[in-house]
Fold each of these.
Amino acid sequence: MKITDHLSKAKSTLFSIEILPPLKGQSIQVLFDHLDPLMEFNPPFVDVTYHREEYVYKDRGHGLLEKRSIKKRPGTVGICSAIKNKYNVETVPHIICGGFTKEETENALIDLNFLDIHNVLLIRGDAIKSESAFKPEELGHHYAIELVDQVVNMNNGKYLDEELIKATPTDFCIGVAGYPEKHFEAPNLMFDLHYLKRKVELGAQYVVTQMFFDNQKYFDYVNKCRELGIDIPIIPGLKPITIKRQNTILPRIFHIDLPEALSDEIEKCKDNDQVKEVGVEWAIQQSKELIEFGVPCLHFYSMGRAEPVHKIASALF
C-alpha cells in the first residue's frame, strides 16, 4: 500500500518512525528489539535510512597510507524486506545520490520492486566526513531532483537501457525531503521551495520534513508551500532530545535552531536523565499542537532509541 493511500484514508493523525540499520557485525535482532515496543502504535510505515561508504586511511608503515572504503551500516534493502515480512508493515527505504551510479540506483530499485516494496524517499544525502562538500559518484546523480526524474521514468516503463522494449513499469510512491528552516546550502527559503515545487511537478507525492523544534516554523513552511501550489502532504519530522550535548550538536549537524525556552531548560538539567524528561515533554506538547493543526502523520526520528519515542506515543495515541 502506498504512503499516500495511508495518509488519505486515515481518520486521525498517524504515527510513523525512522530507524537506522544495525552497525556492520550486529544482528538484525538488535533492530527488532528496537521496533517491537513501538509496533503497538500501529505505524503504517517505517523508514530505513541508507548510509553510504566512508573512507579511512590505514598506516602501512614507511610513510605509506592505504585508502579503504567501508560501510558502517549496510543492508537497507534487506532490512526493509525483513521488517515488511516480520511486522506486515510498509517500509520506505531512503535512496540517496552519494555512492551510487545511475545504473546502481536502477538496480536497487529493481530489487525493491521485486520485493514488493513500492515506497521510496529520495534525498541527495550528505557529504562523507573526508569531503568538505558533497561530491556525486562518477556517472551518478548530483541532486535529489534527478533521482525523482529517474524513478518517474521507471514508473513509466523507461529504463536506462534504451533498447529495452515494453519494459514493465514500476509503481513507486515517491517521497522527498522538506526543510522548514531551509536546506543549509540554499541561499534562502524561497529558493529552496522553488526546487521542492519542481520535484512535485516531476512526480513527488509527499514530503517528510527535517526535524524542527519550533512548530511555528513548520506552520509557516506549510503555508508558503500552499501559496506556491505545493499541495501534497507534508509530514512533520520530530526528534526528542535525549542527551545534553544535543543542545549544540543538533544545530551544528542539521542546521536548525532550538527555541530559547527548550535550550535553557536543557542547560538547567543536572544529567541526561533530566534532559530526556525535558525532551520527551517538549515533543509531547509539540505533537499535540501539530495534531490540532491537522497534520497527516507524526514522523519520529528514533535514532536507535525506542524508549523516548514510546513515551511520547503513549501520551498521544
Note: The chain has a mean pLDDT of 92.
Amino acid sequence: MGVINVTPDSFWEGSRARAEAVTDIAADMIAAGAAILDIGGESTRPGAAYLSPDAELERVAPAIEALRSRWDIALSVDTRKSVVARAAIAAGADIVNDVAALEDDPAMAPLCAASGVPVVLMHKKGVPKTMQDEPYYDDCPAEVFSYLATAARRAIAAGIKAENIILDPGIGFGKRLDDNLALLARLDELCGGGYPVLVGLSRKSFIGSITGRDPAGRMAGSLAAACAALAKGASIFRVHDVAQTVDALRVFQACAGKPEPDWERRA
C-alpha cells in the first residue's frame, strides 16, 4: 500500500504530495509494485490538529478522481470522517482506511456497510493531538488485540461483511517505544485471528528512537521492521518507499524458503 499524502503537514516532508504531482507519484508506485494506493488529506501524526471535512475533501477528492481516471488499481481513502469517505467512494475509492476504527463518526459504519467497501480498523489511544502525551498500558498487545477484536465485532453488527475487515494495530498511535516493539513481537497473535493485518511502520518515530535517525534516514530501519512484520504474518504494508519495500520482502521470503509473494494487482 503506497502512501500518497495530499497534505502540507504529514510527519515526513518527503511524503507530502502537491496536487499536480499525485499522478506522477502514483505511476512510480504502481510501476514499483504497489497493489493499493492510500490517499490521505488529514495528517494524523502525533500532535496534529483536527481538519475540517471541507478542507480534507478539497485535498482528497480531486486526487482520487485523477487516479481513478487513469488506473484500475485499488484506491484507499485514509479518513475518519463519513462525509469525506462518502465523496471518496463516489470518486472511485475502493477501501476506507479509518484510524478511528469507525468510532469517531457514527455515520461511518453504516456508510461502509451500505457501500460494501473493505475497511481498515486501526487502534489508536486518544486523538492525534494528544495521543503521545504519556500513553500507558498494562499489556499493550493484549489490550490492542482485544480492542480490535471488539471493533471487528462492532463492524459486523453494523452490517459490514467479515471478509471486508482488515485490522491495523496502529504502530505509533498512542504507544511508547516498548509498546510498539511488543506489538511487533506478538503480531502473530493478531494475524492468527482470521483477519488480514495491515501494518504502518514506514519511517515512524519508533525507528528513530532505535537508530537515532530523522525520518529522512529511516528507510533501512523501515525495511527491517517490514520484514519482521512479514515473518509474524502481516499481509498489507503501508509504506512510503514502495520499490525498496517490495524488494526487501521478496528477498526475505526467498531466503526463508517460502513461495514468492503474490504481487498481482488490478492495474
Note: The domain at 2-255 is CATH 3.20.20.20 (TIM Barrel).
